[in-house]
Structure to design on (477 residues):
């Protein structure tokens, strides 16, 4: 797909952006991070970032894509020229490509777990199983690098196939059915949780805000998660924005994406924690949370094998629609810059991310401890990659906000936003000051907490950022 392509329908961007946003981040990552970080306090920071920072930056990122109508790297290169700003801003595109690559590498491994559970559900293997059997089964999956690699390979290959074919055919119509279906099944699981679990305990865990419960690294994780779940700050939204019709409303679209995305996360969290408290399981059990609690519910539920099977298929669908948006920005860049064919570009991105994904695979078994990552950064390779994305995405978002807020001209932005001057001024204030201040605040708060070589790395990144900022941003006429 070249840079001048536009989605076939005015509303497709919304669909694609929701497809990108709603994924493992909502169903798997949000509940487990909330559980590990003490509940309500985590959600408070998460929600504040979504609304005060996420929505304005979502608008900014879409805008950069739509005005440049190119892949993020080439688009930023183009915008730095037309706006006579420093070329350093092109790093928005490069940083985004790095994030996309890192995220895809572990995203595909986790989605592979969902593949495993789809199989277990549909074959009825877990019908009537108890908590101990189910968590032992999950541990057995984690202990097997071979099995995990197999699923990882299947998932990433399938995503590659879809992006390679171009995203118009399968995805546009697929999403129209899958997203509503996912929501319906989630509500079914929630109702089951309310009847058979402990929804009161879940609600008080999720909505009791005690900021002291949140560790310093928890702040970074909450902010990172709010960028992650909106697919923000790494080029996915910019790449999709490049195909967005000029008539669709940026503001309304961004609010709709954030709203649906948050709703899915909240329903998933409420359902999962009702079951967790009902069955007396641990809230802080980490990445396995969804994969242990939900099969337990399905094991007992009438028609559980079927409901569970459908549920995990929809999880896979949500994951695929997100993973294609991770492949798209990098693939589009390779096509534009090196004149590759689309399949070639997709293959390069996916093979590299697949290989990187093996690090996540082994982080759960043979490299679970005692590796160079533990020695240098005090965590496994998977946790280190996650930490990097928690830093890269807000940093990318910060730079996007600054560029859109300071470099784009008023008339340009007004034309893109298509709203009145009051909203323009509000938005510009949010991306010029509020977003950057909030992101910097969380960074500064958490830097001393993040061990090892992360600090110098972050320091180096900040210096690059400051260098970029110090270049005078001249406005084009
Ligand atoms: N937003 C996706 C999710 O919540 C993950 C994602 C991040 C997708 C960044 C694309 C880009 O699962």
């Amino acid at each position: 797909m070249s840079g001048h392509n536009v989605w076939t329908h005015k509303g497709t961007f919304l669909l694609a952006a929701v497809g990108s946003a709603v994924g493992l981040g909502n169903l798997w990552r949000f509940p487990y991070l909330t559980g590990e970080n003490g509940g309500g306090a985590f959600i408070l920071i998460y929600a504040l970032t979504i609304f005060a920072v996420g929505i304005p930056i979502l608008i900014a990122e879409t805008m950069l894509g739509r005005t440049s109508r190119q892949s993020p790297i080439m688009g930023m290169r183009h915008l730095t020229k037309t706006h006579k700003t420093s070329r350093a801003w092109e790093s928005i595109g490069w940083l985004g490509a790095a994030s996309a690559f890192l995220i895809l590498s572990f995203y595909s491994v986790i989605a592979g777990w969902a593949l495993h559970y789809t199989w277990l559900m549909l074959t009825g293997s877990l019908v009537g199983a108890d908590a101990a059997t189910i968590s032992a089964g999950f541990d057995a999956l984690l202990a097997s690098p071979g099995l995990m690699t197999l699923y990882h390979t299947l998932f990433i290959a399938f995503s590659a196939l879809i992006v390679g074919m171009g995203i118009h055919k399968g995805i546009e119509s697929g999403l129209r059915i899958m997203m509503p279906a996912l929501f319906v099944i989630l509500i079914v699981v929630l109702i089951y949780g309310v009847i058979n679990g402990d929804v009161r305990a879940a609600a008080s865990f999720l909505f009791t805000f005690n900021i002291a419960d949140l560790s310093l690294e928890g702040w970074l994780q909450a902010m990172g998660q709010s960028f992650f779940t909106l697919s923000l700050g790494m080029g996915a939204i910019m790449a999709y924005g490049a195909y967005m019709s000029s008539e669709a409303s940026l503001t309304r679209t961004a609010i709709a994406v954030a709203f649906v995305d948050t709703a899915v996360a909240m329903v998933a969290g409420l359902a999962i924690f009702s079951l967790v408290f009902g069955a007396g399981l641990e809230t802080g059990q980490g990445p396995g949370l969804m994969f242990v609690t939900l099969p337990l519910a399905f094991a007992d539920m009438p028609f559980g094998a079927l409901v569970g099977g459908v549920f995990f298929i929809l999880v896979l669908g949500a994951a695929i629609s997100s993973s294609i948006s991770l492949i798209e920005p990098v693939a589009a860049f390779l096509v534009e810059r090196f004149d590759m064919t689309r399949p070639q570009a997709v293959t390069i991105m996916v093979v590299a991310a697949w290989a990187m994904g093996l690090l996540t695979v082994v982080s759960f078994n043979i490299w679970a401890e005692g590796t160079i990552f533990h020695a240098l950064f005090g965590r496994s390779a998977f946790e280190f990659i996650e930490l990097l994305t928690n830093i890269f995405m807000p940093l990318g978002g910060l730079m996007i906000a600054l560029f859109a807020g300071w470099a784009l001209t008023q008339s340009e932005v007004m034309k893109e936003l298509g709203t009145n001057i009051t909203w323009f001024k509000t938005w510009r204030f949010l991306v010029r000051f509020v977003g950057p201040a909030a992101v910097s605040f969380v960074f500064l708060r958490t830097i001393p907490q993040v061990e090892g070589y992360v600090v110098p790395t972050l320091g180096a990144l900040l210096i690059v950022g400051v260098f970029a900022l110090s270049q005078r941003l001249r406005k084009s006429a």
The mean pLDDT is 90.
